[in-house]
Amino acid sequence: MSTAIATTAGDLRRLAGRALRHEARTPDALMVNIALPVIIMLLFVYVFGGAITTGSSGLAYVDFVVPAVLLMAGGYGAALTAVSISREMTGGMIDRFRTLPISGWVVPAGFVVASVVRSVVATAIALAVAIALGFRPSASLAEGALVLVLVFGYVLAVSAVAALWGLFVRSTQAAEAFSFMVIFFPYVSDGVVPAETMPGPLRGFAEHQPTTPIVEALRALLLDQPMGNAGWLSAIWLTAAVLISVPIAAVLFRRRTVR
């Protein structure tokens, strides 16, 4: 048992390292991954910030919007996992994976691990830019640790769903659509503008979609505010995304590679 676990862990480490090396060879993609959330941050704070009120929260707009932009930063990079996997599935490299004695879930999991590393770094850069723009988190050490756990969980969940999407679709172009969906959800949440200011049906969607409790939990932790039920709702959404996506992705990988 211990030998099998060590072998699987080694396979996962090598595949994740391979994915990271491939990304390092495409610096333009890395720059977009880092620059996009920074540009969004500048756009919201300096262009839209003066015209947007934060409703009953009473927060400065930079404090209100930063949690959503952090999710955009991590989520966009994580969503690109779908493109990476789709490209592998349509290329010749997958034929070599088919002949290797590795578990079905290890190949997509390697891309997920690489995505988590890349996206957490992008999120950290976005947070540094936010602080330079005037964002002042007041989280305690324990709350700061929970922020890291929440960001890690969000990136992991998005990466897992992205892996599933990349295995489900049949073209790289279709896989690219997933990044749009991930960027779109924070806009229609309590992250960019207060959900209470939206019209009826849109407000109902914003208040009950998965991004909203994650944004609210992140905001509460960063600004040392009451969290309410956002914490356990976030945990449920993120855990469900991982537990559902990973086994289905493993099954899809085997079905698409076994002849």
Helix content: over 70%
Number of domains: 1
Distance between the termini: 29 Å
Secondary structural class? mainly alpha
Overall 3D form? elongated
Strand content: under 5%
Report the count of strand segments: 0
Average pLDDT confidence is 82
Number of helices: 11
- The sequence of SSEs as H and E is HHHHHHHHHHH
Over all CA atoms, what is the radius of gyration?
19 Å
Main sheet record: none
Question: Uncertain segments of ≥5 residues (pLDDT<50)?
Answer: none
Question: What does it look like?
Answer:
This protein is mainly α and 259 residues long. It has one domain (2-256). The protein has eleven helices and no strands. Helix 3 packs antiparallel against helix 6 (106-132), helix 3 runs parallel beside helix 7 (141-168) and helix 4 (81-90) runs parallel beside helix 7. The model has no long low-confidence stretch (mean pLDDT 82).
List its salient traits.
single chain, 259 residues, mainly alpha, 77% helix, transmembrane, membrane, ABC-type transporter activity, ABC2_TM_bact-type
Write the layout of secondary structure elements.
Blueprint lengths: L1 H23 L2 H22 L12 H19 L1 H10 L2 H6 L7 H27 L8 H28 L3 H16 L12 H9 L2 H12 L7 H28 L2
Short synopsis of the structure:
The chain is an all-alpha fold and 259 residues long.
